[in-house]
Design brief:
The protein has helices at 11-22, 34-46, 61-70, 105-126, 152-174, 205-214, 237-243; strands at 2-6, 26-31, 51-55, 74-79, 130-139, 180-185, 226-228, 233-234. By secondary structure, it is of the alpha/beta class. It has a single domain (2-243), classed as 3-Layer(aba) Sandwich (Rossmann fold), CATH 3.40.50. Strands 3-2-1-4-5-6-7-8 form an eight-stranded mixed sheet, with helices on both faces. Strand 5 (130-139), helix 5 and strand 6 form a beta-alpha-beta unit. It comes from Paenibacillus cremeus.
Length: 245
């Protein structure tokens, strides 16, 4: 069994790779920084996990196409890599409460290009590598935000990604494929991308990874769904929006 985890050199991605490795998966550590990626490989190998580095830069499609030629067959693809977008304000470089009105068109374009177009290109590039019953898991967030937390660029990119997840999943159904693609919303997680500290309401990367991977092995078919951290399957935006009122 083989799994490619993007953004696996640190944070949630590394912990997802670690937990899958403990289940016996051969891990492909997808990362754009080879030094950090190889360090993650060394750390995983030290725990008895079979792992290797593969360069994945969602902003460089050449690396995605080259990866498709190198990875062989895949049983799992976990799309964890992404960027929060420009969240700098006068209050600091990682202001998760930046006003929606302060985002520029360039902020939106840069974030969508990485989180949506990059993830889309990677999935398309790897379709022929996927086993007959492979699973694709996209780490995502609710699309609506709330009045206190509304990182516009990030939300926009994930809304597009969530649409793609549902559409691709329905395409699997239409063609009679046994493959699944679904998203998981782990809730608030403390990472170096957002600068948020762990708390009663903000999960650690270890806890988030355990939650995310649990939906791969719960025996349920989540294809074309977005799964909330509570375990509720969201099958359309209207339902998701109503849950966040």
């Amino acid at each position: 069994m083989k799994a490619l985890v993007t953004g696996a050199n640190k944070g949630i991605g590394f912990e997802i790779a670690r937990q899958l490795g403990k289940r016996g998966y051969e891990i492909l550590v997808g990362a754009r920084d080879e030094i950090r990626g190889q360090k993650a490989v060394s750390d995983l190998t030290a725990e008895g996990i079979t792992a290797s580095f593969i360069k994945i830069d969602l902003n460089d499609f050449t690396t995605l196409h080259e990866a498709a030629d190198r990875v062989g067959t895949l049983d799992l693809l976990v799309n964890n890599a992404g960027i929060p977008g420009n969240i700098a304000t006068h209050r600091g470089q990682k202001d998760m409460f930046k006003s929606a009105f302060d985002y520029t068109t360039d902020d939106l374009r840069q974030t969508v290009e990485v989180n949506f177009f990059g993830t889309h290109e990677l999935i398309k590039s790897l379709l022929s590598n996927l086993t007959e019953d492979a699973k694709i898991l996209n780490v995502t967030i609710p699309i609506s935000g709330n009045q206190y937390w509304q990182p516009l660029a990030y939300l926009t990119s994930k809304a597009a990604q969530n649409s793609m997840t549902m559409v691709f999943g329905n395409e699997f159904i239409k063609t009679g494929s046994k493959r699944q693609i679904f998203g998981v919303m782990p809730g608030a997680v403390a990472t170096d991308l957002n600068g948020m500290p762990e708390s009663d309401y903000v999960k650690s990367p270890v806890a988030a990874a355990a939650l995310i991977t649990s939906f791969l092995f719960d025996g349920k078919n989540h294809n074309a769904h977005i799964v909330n951290y509570t375990g509720v399957d969201v099958t359309n935006y209207e339902a998701e929006l109503s849950q966040n009122k």
